[in-house]
Design goal:
The structure is a single chain. By secondary structure, the chain is α/β, with parallel strands linked by helices. Helices cover about 45% and strands about 15% of the residues. Strand 3 (about 45-50) and strand 4 form a beta hairpin. It is elongated.
């Protein structure tokens, strides 16, 4: 595997790759992962949950930094590929190193196309031909949502891209003992990193409208460059103790935090498939989410509701309507059942193994023909 970020980094891509790799190890696979040394003090090599993790230099968290990391991490990936059966690139930043490793090891390359970073760049005259070439060079392409798969196939019409929603470790993400003290009224949780694309600004603007109708408080779990701006907005709206910014929390803290709320809200302006939304659902929380990206693929009236992105009035009306329902807990139970049935990590691992094994068989048959 190659992935630009990996735990202890926090995010949907990071948790997806971690749990996928861990699941593959539990099935008897030997898994090595090349990633970045993205935080000070991280070791160059460690074994995490049976995964061989190799970390290389990351100069910056931007396209130039990603490109440099891709180049400097490629020799390590190529060495590992010579003793491997498959190389898997997680997100577009990893595909070019994966192509080099594929050729070095004579093995097939699987690429998974994740995140809004890809969607934002797919229309760029600079990036579109690059993505087309990378899609063509991959032996099998997966996408984290149907929208991403459709966009990718539009860039490379002769390439098939399979949509495969990220999975959740449902044994970990389930309703547990709440880790927050009981709320005085109703409690909403917004598990969002504080980046502009995640739309937390519009949630804050909706809160006064929600408070007019119901006794509600909200906790926002996540950090990012928008935090000071959002805290100032909350102060200007006189939200006071109605909104708490909890900052970034470890992944293993999330089940207890999610279980402390009645409803999870995802006010995203752009989204691939939200692992955080699936994790909330696995903890039996109904979800109110923006009608964008991959969110409508996982959220509907049976497990929550959708609202227009960037519209605080629509957000407030949707949240209020959900909280006023007397079957909110039933929606949460249905949400967990849906995740277990469709998006458990076990099912995700099953499908990856099917893809890997088919490619390995095909590769060996081609070698025999030579």
């Amino acid at each position: 595997m190659h992935c630009i970020y990996f735990p202890p980094e926090i995010g949907g891509l990071e948790s997806h790759v971690h749990y996928l790799c861990r699941g593959l190890v539990s099935r008897g696979c030997r898994v090595s992962l090349v990633t970045s040394r993205s935080k000070p003090g991280l070791p160059a090599h460690e074994v995490m949950d049976g995964i061989d993790v190799w970390r290389t230099w990351l100069p910056a968290r931007n396209p130039l930094g990603w490109a440099i990391h891709g180049g400097t991490s490629t020799p390590r990936l190529a060495r590992i590929a010579r003793e491997s059966d498959v190389v898997h690139a997680q997100a577009f930043q990893s595909v070019l190193p994966g192509v080099v490793a594929k050729r070095a090891g004579g093995i097939p390359l699987v690429s998974t196309w994740h995140t809004s970073h890809f969607l934002k760049r797919a229309t760029s005259p600079f990036w579109a031909p690059i993505f087309q070439r990378l899609l063509t060079w991959s032996d099998y392409n997966l996408a984290a949502s149907a929208e991403i798969a459709q966009v990718a196939e539009g860039l490379a019409p002769n390439v098939s891209v399979e949509p495969l929603t990220n999975g959740v470790e449902t044994d970990i993400f389930r309703r547990v003992e709440p880790s927050l003290p009981p709320a005085t009224g109703r409690r909403i949780i917004v598990p969002r990193r504080l980046f502009e694309k995640n739309g937390v600004e519009f949630f804050l603007k909706a809160m006064p409208l929600i408070i007019e109708q119901l006794d509600v408080e909200a906790v926002i779990v996540g950090d990012g460059p928008e935090r000071k701006k959002l805290e100032a907005l909350a102060a200007n709206l006189e939200l006071g103790e109605r909104v708490q910014f909890l900052g970034a929390r470890r992944h293993d803290e999330m089940p207890g935090l999610l279980s402390s709320a009645e409803l999870a809200v995802f006010p995203s302006l752009m989204e691939a498939t939200s692992v955080a939304a699936l994790e909330s659902m696995a903890c039996e929380l109904p979800v109110a989410a923006s009608d964008v990206g991959g969110l409508p693929e996982i959220v509907d009236h049976e497990v929550g509701a959708l609202f227009e992105a960037g519209n605080p009035t629509a957000l407030a009306a949707t949240v209020t309507a959900l909280l006023e329902r007397d079957d909110l807990r039933a929606l949460g139970a249905a949400a967990r059942s849906r995740v277990v049935e469709r998006w458990s990590n076990a099912r995700l691992v099953d499908r990856h193994l099917e893809v890997y094994e088919s490619l390995v068989v095909r590769s060996r048959e081609q070698v025999r023909k030579l």
